[in-house]
């Protein structure tokens, strides 16, 4: 199955009909372009009394099976990574030996990717091409432009994929944040200009399509987090997604305001902050102390930021709850703030973690019960989706990055915003944008690979 010069195709192998392990292919004139290559994690199975999650023997890291494109590796022009979240970048070290193609991405994302590749002894084998926002690159038969948008991680980019017979706008993960605190912002004219040029299809994030209104800005969280931390009497531990550099900046500022010392607990947090420093996204005013020093400070001077907001095993917050963290132990009267919301499927693990903390006498504050904004999603709610469709004016809407409910609501929103046609499908469906729009259902077999005992195994 190879597209000819009259064809413009979209083929998702992962991330459509689900949230996670994004792997997308665009086909035209005998070639394919891959966009994103991410991982997912199995949904929690049985949870033991100590809060440990058992995954029923499944590999702990899973990704889309790339068999379709690895069988056509000679026709793969390149791989673009839109941003550095695990569900978009995490599978590259595992799958690149099967792909053997150049990787195009922005500076911060490239820094994260290099750190991952080094762990697999691939750093000097993978050709990484750094691209600036606004830049255009010819990648095989595709002319691609990187467009600035905002998300919950630095340097996210949407893509305008141009071909001789039509253009596709690929949103990546995004929101419309007028004050993102870190990294580039966005301008409306970037997207209204696309409409003047003509967009055949818009492939767009559906994660929050069921959420009314507009997402909260990162800048709006400072007051709520500060007020909670200021009145806490013991240690304060905030758990959030390690990739949210803006959230770390906010917490560092609050630490200064409240007379606390901030330390990072967890490998991913340390890695992300290191990448931010290396790429100039970490101001010198945001001082951190070694987490090993936190245990020697008076409790009211401690602000720790910990991994584990989703109840994952072996993370810093899990170890604190179990009393097995090497740097200090939580005590009654300390406070843990969840500056994150549950990813669907993780609710049981999070509740087990919260129960463990409360048994220690720890005060637990979640985003749901805080009463003030202490977490901001990185994905567009309904008002943002409608605005983007009005700006870009595609002929076809293709919802992705969501489960069936999210994508169905997304399609209705797009049509309500004036898009003539919406095509909703799932992994393995071939979306034909040119010459005649339509979907061929399940033309490609899809599935998952897992990383287990240092090798890839098929999960299903």
Uncertain ranges = 46-54
DSSP helical segment count: 12
Report the span from N to C terminus: 23 Å
Class computed from helices, strands and strand pairing: alpha/beta
Rg value: 22 Å
Mean pLDDT: 94
CATH topology of the largest domain: Metallo-beta-lactamase, Chain A
CATH superfamily of the largest domain: Ribonuclease Z/Hydroxyacylglutathione hydrolase-like
Percent of residues in helices: 25-40%
Domain Metallo-beta-lactamase: 20-214
Protein name: Ribonuclease J
Pfam families: Lactamase_B (PF00753), RMMBL (PF07521), RNase_J_b_CASP (PF22505)
GO molecular function: hydrolase activity
Structure description:
- This is Ribonuclease J.
- It comes from Marinobacter alkaliphilus.
- Residues 20-214 form the Metallo-beta-lactamase domain.
- The protein is of the alpha/beta class and 460 residues long.
- Helix content is 26%, strand content 24%.
- The chain has 2 domains: 8-213 and 378-458, Metallo-beta-lactamase, Chain A (4-Layer Sandwich); 218-365, Rossmann fold.
- Helix 4 (107-119) crosses helix 8 (267-278) and helix 9 crosses helix 10.
- The longest helix is centred in the middle third of the chain and has 14 residues, at 245-258.
- The two termini are 23 Å apart.
Report a brief summary of the structure.
The chain is of the alpha/beta class and 460 residues long. It has helices at 67-70, 86-89, 92-99, 107-119, 188-197, 222-231, 245-258, 267-278, 316-322, 347-359, 382-392, 404-416, and strands at residues 8-14, 23-28, 31-37, 39-40, 61-64, 76-80, 103-105, 128-130, 136-139, 142-148, 157-163, 166-170, 201-205, 236-239, 261-265, 302-306, 335-338, 363-365, 396-400, 421-422, 430-434, 438-440, 448-452, 455-458. The two termini are 23 Å apart.
